[in-house]
Amino acid sequence: MTHLLRLTLLGTFAFFGVSCASRLQTVASTSVGPERICHVRTTAYTHTEEGGPHNAIGTPLSGKEIKSAAADWSRWPLGTKFRIVDTDEIFQIDDYGRALVGTGTIDLYKSNRLAMRKWGVRSVDIDVIEWGSPAKSLKVLAPRKHSRTVHPMVLALRKSQENSTHSF
């Protein structure tokens, strides 16, 4: 019986280990269906902070059905849509922030300070529903390339584009 229990536990751990991607995507994926990425560091922000009530593309931050999120667009391109496994909330990357550049952290929009504080900092598993577009990210960021926040993202996106055009 003990041997059977061990095999069952090993099989369960192996299943969960395979179901979670251990790497952080740096460019859009072409995979069909959700891609699970485990242990993503998340923080929270709200419209009363420095960036105000609008995202980087000029539309109001959303706390509705598909919520706004901010990230380094060279790691999580503009338009990336994902679901947080534990809460079933769906977010879409439509913003970026100075503290996020060069990190894998995703900043989740919360509609008020209490919800923001309650979220705090969490490591979560996410299912990427749809990868955003590095090309669209570059199109939005290019006019802002002289900003210290934006410049590293533009460089990383351009390098990624060069690498993808040179790979055979």
Model description:
The protein is an alpha/beta fold and 168 residues long. The chain has one domain: RlpA-like domain (Barwin-like endoglucanases, Beta Barrel), CATH 2.40.40. The protein has 4 helices and 6 strands. A 6-stranded mixed β-barrel has the order 1-5-2-4-3-6. The longest helix has 18 residues, at 2-19. The radius of gyration is 18 Å and the shape is globular.
- SS summary, helix count: 4
Q: What percent of residues are in strands?
A: 15-25%
Backbone structural class: alpha/beta
Strand order of the largest sheet: 1-5-2-4-3-6
Features:
29% helix; alpha/beta; Barwin-like endoglucanases; 4 helices; single chain; 6-stranded mixed beta barrel; 6 strands; 168 residues; 23% strand; globular
Secondary structure blueprint with pairings:
Layout lengths: L1 H18 L15 E11 L20 E5 L10 E4 L5 E6 L10 E4 L3 H7 L2 E9 L3 H8 L9 H16 L2
Parallel strand pairs: 1-5, 2-4
Antiparallel strand pairs: 1-6, 2-5, 3-4, 3-6
Short overview:
By secondary structure, the chain is α/β, with parallel strands linked by helices. It has four helices and six strands, in the order αβββββαβαα.
